[in-house]
């Protein structure tokens, strides 16, 4: 027993040292993820074709890689682009930057001042030159100081002393302050910049790629009544193009997220993207429902089936005249589980069917929450409507649900 205890203690010490080493390596590689650094995740390189890899931003690929292997799929949650109102540029006689052009912040300051105007002559600016989508979010502004060679945190990862008061930070946020005050081409920070851009009142905006989907999906009556495009993220003249943490973040995937990626690939190959059956048919393979049916059928007494066979009933007749009627509670319960799962689903419909005509209720309700405001009346109304349908279904059929779960068959 003493030898066994010493062996267990030694193994525990080795595991502790291993975990500590993993954490240290994960931190030294800019915290790309303990699971990936410690080889707890299988590489994802084989899940992507070379063509798909070519579409991934270099920074996003690097952020999710370790020792030459992709350990986390690139989720462009913080990729930033320069949105451009082409119509305002044309009106001002300014050449429109192309998708592969990358302006400097100095060029943006010059262009933004030319594009800022009081179009109706009332003394109040109504066309703004440039701003950021999230003017108070450091991760979106961080690219400025990194372009000038600044850091986000000290080398030991513990302090910001000597970092946020270093010259790159001072220069970057002096520019930021001038944009709102001295130069005056940026609207007040409490303004909803994406909405201002949608109204045609903002010439340039640094924002995330999710706004592309928003502007592309808007119809002619509700969407931008102008031409717009995107260009690459700017940098300071003489500085570096900011990659890594400020431009592209990555998400260490759970098993569920990996399966969603594989399922999306299958739906794409079948041509089921932006279809109703692409939304709902995958949810039919529900493990809980399959397990419930298996347990229910397993509890049907074998004597009933044997008696039916003795009376000359075929297996098909037994299925439809004995087993199915007996299993009515399980069938209703399974149907309720599948319906509620699909009704409350948000992420999968958003991924597989982004078209406006295919928005399910949860996706539609989420549109009331915007980056700068929440439309509470629409949110509350949508939440009530989303709750009414399940309630109307559950109340009439709850006795079947309770019976199937409680008895798991017949006695």
Based on Cα principal axes, name the global outline.
elongated
Number of helical segments?
A: 19
Distance between the termini: 49 Å
Strand content: 5-15%
Q: Helical percent range?
A: 40-55%
Spans with pLDDT under 50 lasting ≥5 residues?
A: 4-16, 25-37, 243-258
Could you give the order of strands across the largest sheet? 4-5-3-6
| Cα-atom radius of gyration | 29 Å
Mean pLDDT: 77
Major sheet size, sense and barrel closure: 4 strands, mixed
H/E order of the elements? HHHHEEEHHEHHHEHEHHHHHHHHH
Instruction: Give a count of the beta strands, DSSP E runs of length 2 or more.
Output: 6
Q: Determine the structural class based on helices, strands and strand pairing.
A: mainly alpha
Summarize the structure in words.
By secondary structure, the chain is mainly α. Helix content is about 50%, strand content about 5%. The protein has 19 helices and 6 strands. The protein has a 4-stranded mixed beta sheet with strand order 4-5-3-6.
